[in-house]
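yo

u said u wanted the structure for the complex thing, so here. seqs first:
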Amino acid sequence: MPTRSYLEAIREGMRDEMRRDERVMILGEDVGTKGGVFGTTEGLQKEFGEWRVMDAPLAESCIVGVCIGAALYGMRPIAEIQFQDFIMPAVDQIVSEAAKMRYRSNNHWGVPMVLRAPFGGGIHGALYHSQSIEAMFCGVPGLKVVVPSTPYDAKGLLVSALRDPDPVLFFEHKRAYRSVKGEVPDEEYTVPLGAAAVVREGEDIAVFTYGMMVHAALEVAERLAADGFECEVVDLRSLRPLDRAAIIRSARKCGKVMVAQEPNLAVSISSEVSAIVAEECFEHLDAPVMRIGGPEIPAMPYAAALEEFYLVTPDKLEAALRKLAAY
Amino acid sequence: MPTRSYLEAIREGMRDEMRRDERVMILGEDVGTKGGVFGTTEGLQKEFGEWRVMDAPLAESCIVGVCIGAALYGMRPIAEIQFQDFIMPAVDQIVSEAAKMRYRSNNHWGVPMVLRAPFGGGIHGALYHSQSIEAMFCGVPGLKVVVPSTPYDAKGLLVSALRDPDPVLFFEHKRAYRSVKGEVPDEEYTVPLGAAAVVREGEDIAVFTYGMMVHAALEVAERLAADGFECEVVDLRSLRPLDRAAIIRSARKCGKVMVAQEPNLAVSISSEVSAIVAEECFEHLDAPVMRIGGPEIPAMPYAAALEEFYLVTPDKLEAALRKLAAY
Amino acid sequence: MVVAKTDAVSRENLDGETLRAMYRHMLRSRVLDERMWVLNRQGRAPFWISGMGHEAIQVAVGMNMEPGTDWLAPYYRDLALTLVLGMTPRDQLLSVLAKAEDPNSGGRQMPAHYGSRAHNIISTGSPTTTQLLHAAGIALAMRMRGDAAICVTAFGEGSTSGGDFHEALNFTATHKLAVVFVVENNGYAISVPVEKQMATPNVSDRAIAYGIPGVSVDGNDAIACYRAARDAVQRARSGAGPTLLEAKVHRLTSHSSDDDQRRYRSADDLEAERLQDCMPRFRAMLEDLGVLGPGDSDSLRTELVAEVDEATAYAEQAADPLAETALLHVYAEDV
Amino acid sequence: MVVAKTDAVSRENLDGETLRAMYRHMLRSRVLDERMWVLNRQGRAPFWISGMGHEAIQVAVGMNMEPGTDWLAPYYRDLALTLVLGMTPRDQLLSVLAKAEDPNSGGRQMPAHYGSRAHNIISTGSPTTTQLLHAAGIALAMRMRGDAAICVTAFGEGSTSGGDFHEALNFTATHKLAVVFVVENNGYAISVPVEKQMATPNVSDRAIAYGIPGVSVDGNDAIACYRAARDAVQRARSGAGPTLLEAKVHRLTSHSSDDDQRRYRSADDLEAERLQDCMPRFRAMLEDLGVLGPGDSDSLRTELVAEVDEATAYAEQAADPLAETALLHVYAEDV
Ligand SMILES: Cc1ncc(C[n+]2csc(CCOP(=O)(O)OP(=O)(O)O)c2C)c(N)n1
Ligand SMILES: Cc1ncc(C[n+]2csc(CCOP(=O)(O)OP(=O)(O)O)c2C)c(N)n1
Ligand SMILES: [Mg+2]
Ligand SMILES: [Mg+2]
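structre next:
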């Protein structure tokens, strides 16, 4: 199988679906000639033209609202938000409109739209180019939220999202774009929405995580394996809906649970995973359900030392896992 | 002590602070002549004039953004959002601006602003006049979020919020406005932000909740008491920050925990409370941490049968508590 | 002035049939609207929000649209517009009584939250102004598909203060999309008068910012509304781009059944507006023109009341939604 | 044309001192800006976003403001404006090197996210257009306090597509608040040309929608900028309300150090714009007028480079923020 970067896999996912389905279109800032600020849409306007790959004005509510309208008329729009941080002006269109359209119309109308946005830190992006604000949407019925951690999943989940009849928020860790590479088949394939993946088997500690943290967890798991502790690493992949069955299975199997994420912990994915485990695995737990994430500060600061302080590095994760292992 | 309705207590809180501190002002839709769609600001424009009690255009981002600017200049603005559902267009101003102003300016600037909005259902308000979307803000560092359940707390917390140097979201359960009455002293007093209240002592089950559900919990607690089960009912009151110490204390004391709320459970206050208990009270728990809330549907539908289906009624709460008691 | 009216009419060369159809649509909506208020006062419908006073512009716009081809992103006052496009009094009565059969939302949304797949009327929620961007997206898709269709969206003047208004007009103007933006300016956003909402005398002045035509018309003059609507629709269909069409109307009722406008408006104002009601005015004109004979209007009302009676009876016996159905249709998979 | 220039100048009756001060401010910002790019290319500053080409309007506005009284809600290109109001090259170098002493944010924000309590410059984040509403709120508070102060806010033309632009102009126009809205129109929002952002030739056309004056000025003509800025500031201070002041400028650099505009703009375009740079043009004019003698400009540059050298040296040895300080100042209680 050919090797692709995370970014290439996403671009191929869009390109293949646009070739296959002329209803698929992209609306976003700088997606045209520039090919996006990260290059994700590079070459797509040349192939598909100025209408199907359209540069939007600097107005996120417009980008999402227009995509909702186009979806109602029968298109399969991709709304690209330049940074996840800049979704905020579009929250009304996402939460009040896209998420509720099918329900409020008693199934007469639906919004088959994919909203793509890069998230995450560790790239000197400071407060507004480093955030992970996905939790804000993971409690909203009517939305689906996915975060791939590998090129294979990135393309497979994106294709599934583009074929899904409901709005899907597709969040891409910007640090993964060029740093994460992997095999991606040339043939058409999909990865189902709503399914977590056990990316490493183990019996001692179940580690639930997503995004770039998956790679840190795998690295740390090997360090612990050297000392005989086997971590089961679960890539949640789908943050809404969460794969309850997979979470319960691994938690019960290991009896010890660590939920790891990049952003701060309060009212987050980690809270929900922990609550599911607390409710469903009580009799199987050998230790408190532990969580590790960013500090309770607004976002990642710019100065290198401050950014480093925010991030859950492999070393910090290792320390937390060893503490749990020792419990 | 004189008896006041929840609504009267809130109005008095605003009025007293406006008399005490001329920096306090109100900006919101219909807050002037009409006195607000619920009558919360009735009479205030007459007393304080058209500038300090100003009818805003139909633009929530404007209401919040203008209040942020006024706060930066030294005012103590109250931004009234007509229904919590309609905060969505202002999320960027709240989350990107108000919440991060102090942090990003390294403490040179702050936003002493109170955002008031009615929330909650059971009043035939349907999808967009019944929601409880507070969870969206409870994971946002830089914000404080409070929800009073009694007239006493409503006034005391509002006064504290108005004297707080940072942005406070003050959410009022609209079903409580006229239905909930209680004693409110005429003398000046405050209720501290960040502190939960044990509103009923018990040893068997700790029930953590907020808003109108507090009253349901108290009612159900009496039913169970008849059968010898003593519930400790904790009114969280402050949803950000959560009163960790109070949560841990009551959870450890009872060994059984129920978290009850009106909205759907995923990635919510209930998730965070449950996660805190799971992490901090492991060795004290005699049963899984249970949660009860609304179904995972976008919001409360209009038809009576559908609305009733959504709500956690005292009977549903009682059933859940009896199940937990029997564990 | 009969002559002037005749001139106006002949200038539009509107035949009697068209004029009668307009009047019928307006009266039908009015009769139905009156029934909704009765049901509300009787406690049989917890909520109603009315289109009374807005009928002329809505009917004028609707009659210039092509049902089945053109699309509508309405707002809660557009009762008459939904009827012109083919929805029925029964449909809306099913909604006001929150019945399972309600085609708008199956009783899930408040009344007057219109939507009908069968009539290209998109589902509307409560947040104001969001639908303007949906209309922009629909028109973008029409343009990409090469469909000779247009999209109409309607809203109050208060909604023009919201950011989505600006973003929608800017986007459609930039790409010359086939949208007609219809502002039903009744001078109030609930209790807030237009002077506290904006600095310009006309909402249509906002059009200049986008390089598109802005037109203001007397919303109580059905013929003027018809002319303006026809021009705006033609302009959109011809590919010339969007128009901001403002009709100055009166809100002949309180904002909704939860409001009492006497608390913030003078009795004189309210009386003055009632005297300008578009219905009697249009009726008088049609009678002057001989388009309506003596008694025609009354017999028409009798006929329409009968229709509404029948629809009310149907809606009242229709089934309520079952509690468990609240779980359905969050996602397509639930189907 | 010397004469015309002289006329222009005398019409504004600008004395030589004022003109020299303007030139000095512009050159100081340019010299500092050049240094930022050097530090970025040397890998000593991970990021820079430049104001090169925008100096004339910024200095013109800043010189018409009253430091200590008036307020500013800037955006990331406003380097020159912050310097006119009293911030120093040292302040901004501390920021670009993310030092603890940085008065903008203590190294917490990206460079060019300006803010200084001491200079009434509010803290700005990355989301565009939000600051326009803050300016509106500041001016509302000034009005309520009866302060004879004004608030200036600056932003790019791209930001005028966002909803907050509309809401801010509408609100300030409705209440006649003392805000000067300064659009630095460089024709691009990153790579998106203005034709894809809006349909009107001038951003100032948007003013008509709010019933306020809209003025467009050549941002490469320092004198024209000065005149327009003075009028807008006077209008605000007199209580007549807001003005939308558009300066047509050129972005003489890529959007930021992360961008390469050669990928989306032709070499000819870029060259043509460079030839219109406001700096040499203003210099030539002042030399024609004899306001600058031969060599004055060069010696001024030498002096300013020395200042920037000294500031760079200071900033480089300044302390980095300590890791644990990342926890401070989420809430006031942390102090
Ligand atoms: C975003 C949002 N904010 C507030 C409301 C509450 N609200 C409903 S209608 C209305 C006034 C609308 O006025 P206008 O647009 O003039 O329409 P009209 O009712 O006068 O026809 C308000 C404030 C809402 N529905 N949505
Ligand atoms: C809400 C938001 N969306 C997107 C961005 C990313 N972004 C930063 S600057 C910019 C373009 C701004 O263009 P303009 O307003 O014309 O200012 P200029 O940079 O040309 O001076 C964009 C899209 C942002 N900062 N904020
Ligand atoms: Mg109105
Ligand atoms: Mg620009």
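Residues C 156-158, 186, 188-189 surround magnesium ion (ligand 3) (CB under 6 Å). Chain A touches chain C at residues 25, 51-52, 56-57, 59, 61-62, 64-75, 77, 89, 92-93, 96-97, 100-110, 141-142, 144, 164-166 (CB under 8 Å).
cya
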